[in-house]
Amino acid sequence: MNYKTKMLIAVGAAVTANCQPCLESAVTVARDNGLEETEILEAIGVAKMVRRGAIGNMDEFASALTGTAGGDAETPGHGCGCH
Q: 20 to 30 A Cα–Cα from 63, which one of 6, 40, 45, 56?
């Protein structure tokens, strides 16, 4: 795997982990190593999609476990398409 791909994965992982220091570091290193701003923004966008889907799925899972009403109306489910 090339370094550019690794950096884009690091950016996406930081977003999905909700880690601001990691994201700041990954974006800085990516920029310092010549990655295009559009590539960084695309990685962030994909990570947001994955995170949104995971949050929705977890809300549904928690509701099923507790027998409560459906997930949070503000949290869209299945945004990432993994299920």
A: 45
Domain boundaries, the chain: 3-66
Report the Cα–Cα distance between both ends of the chain, in Å, rounded.
27
Least Cα distance to 43 among 21, 12, 18 occurs for 12
Instruction: Give me the residue label for tokens 């489910």.
Output: 77
* pLDDT tens string 25-65: 999 999 999 999 999 999 999 999 999 988 888 899 999 99
CB-CB contact of 18 with 52 (8 Å): no
Nearest-angstrom CA–CA distance, 3 and 67: 46
Q: Provide the phi-psi class of 35: left if phi over 0, else alpha when psi is between -120 and 50, else beta.
A: beta
Inter-residue contact 60 to 24 (CB < 8 Å): no
3-66 CATH fold = AhpD-like (1.20.1290)
